[in-house]
# Entry
Amino acid sequence: MEKNKYTNKNIEDEWGNGNAQTIDFIVTEDCNLRCKYCYICHKKANHVMEFEIAKKFIDYIFSGRFQQSEGVILGFIGGEPFLEVDLIDKIVDYYKIKAYEVGSDWYWNYRINITTNGVNYAQESVQHFIKKNHDKLSVTITIDGTKEKHDLQRVFPDGSGSYDIIVKNIPLYLEQFYETTKVTFAHEDLPLLKESILHLWKLGIKDISANVVYEDVWEEGDDKIFEDQLKRLAEEIVDNELYRDYKVSLFDENIGEPLSEEIKLHSSCGAGRMIAVGPSGKIYPCLRYKDYSLESDKHEVVIGNVETGIDFDKVLPFRVATYPTQCDEECLNCEIAMGCSFCQGQSYDSADTATNFQRSKYICRMHKARVRANHYFFNLLYNRKGIERSTNRKYLKKMYFTLGSNFVDFCEYPNRIADNTITRMSADMIKKGLDYCLEHFFSPVFLHPVDELNHDLFYFGNEYRISHIVSLKFYEQTKNYRDVMYIVDRHTIELLHDDLPYVVLNLSWEDVSKLSEYAIKVFAHTNRINLNMQGSANSESLKLYENELMRINKYLVSCWVENIIAPKEFNKITDIFFAEKQDACGAGVRDFTIGADGKYYVCPFYYIKGIDLIEERAGKLLVKNQRLHTLEYSPLCNLCDARHCVRCSITNAEGTGEVNVPPSYKCYPSLVEYNNSVIFRKMIEENCPNIRLREIEKMEYTSVFEKYESINKCDIGFHITNN
# Structure
């Protein structure tokens, strides 16, 4: 399987394990071009760094007052840095001499990064510098795409285009460096995106780092143009298998998920961690905080100078800046926030006050368009070529399609629709629902009727990534389809064939005595079982359940001893060890349903029961009292250690009258499962000493309410027993 063909990491990003210190020298504020989207809006021809300024700064970083990291990246920027190539050469020479004199590891562990417009790339002095430092040097020439696209933005002071001059230097550049470039898109050139990327690949530039500008330039409809261009590019890439040899950062496996807890510890960029020294000797957290790139009336942000060094107190705000401190609730809670970067300097420039703690959001609609196009691309890649997106798709919201009201059982709440009330979902309704999923970042799941199979539904369009839940009775008809999850029950267990990724096993409490027998049969064909115990348990069936789980324990341990590389999993026993928090049913929060009647519901069973809690407003699904469907507002569940438990709101409502309070008869099985998992862990410890499972201890309570009473010291005035 081909993975990681599209990534926004290049060799420079990888060097130093991403921990290298970046130091930028602003060698000039002048440029021989006047690119229309350039964020350096106040260029000055007479502002050139003197060599003595650079020397003083290098002396400072080797003085012992500057903490050195694993390695250092020396960046030379402008304006156009190669206008001052002789100065850059002198600075690099002095850096090497100084590093050698003080015996610094940075004598060896350094890289030089330069991004140039390429106008004077073939100049003798530039080529001399390149040959002299080639082993430590990374150069990127910026070429924007087709001649039309490039000359629209990247122009000389007289307004003439620069494409013809720069493209002549590309063959020489490709002989000397890794074939990459940086491309920027703004409002005017969005319609030229697809052809520009394809054009650059034809030129031999295989790795393109592309982005849209962060500034307030976007007009109504730009996001749709952006999305359309990306989708057309996606089709071209997949149809011609260009993903084998080429990449563009606009398609990235890692975007379109909520912010991870790890990411929240950081900010969007390295401002304050990378530093820039200007021609005057002032030190900045990044060049975007220098006055020459500020469009507002804000003052530049200076964190030190070459004479006195860096003022830690001035850097401190940047070191403590994180997503939670810089973003509002809309951004923090955005379900597709991953990959939506922002420039701290641009945010400072556009903020209401002179602060680094107000994020700019001009890019929001463009990011959403990019995520939709990325889903489109990876769905095409999977459906047409069988290439899986390597990142975890668990963060995608699900939309269940009840193709018929008699859909197959797939969870612990059984579907008991009467045959004379069967309703089928129309093709038009399905198409409308799928388009809604694309627009609003849902992963569609088709719940097939238990009595029939429509093969056309497995070919509904390559742009969709559809999962199917099907009864095992249709295995022979569907075994060659992708993304099919099979439901097994006591009537179909003898139909098991071949190897299956995992199986859902439905069993009633009346048949609990056969659980281990059925489970072992199923495990002959899969490495994972998701068990649904349907109905209600009594004390007798719970005792049987405990015994059956112990039998399965022994079977699993024997399997793990034989194969610790791919051990078998049983959700009621093993899931507890991999659950960081209670994360059961997401109905009404992250999972929703389209009923066969075309309306939206909390879950398929709310549709069956006709419980309508959802209003669609401006494309968003609003659930009445949605908070009650979350763990935070489940006063018993959020205390319980049985984090593997299926927390079903409709079962709760039937048992207690409230969607967020579980009935005891649903809690007891989960506590039995938990305590059985404790035993399983001890058995694994004894038989598979190389495996370390998360420690869990036997529950000291028989009811979660006991724990609730103990913690909250409550007494409602009477006590009852549930026999």
Summary: The two ends are 55 Å apart (CA to CA).
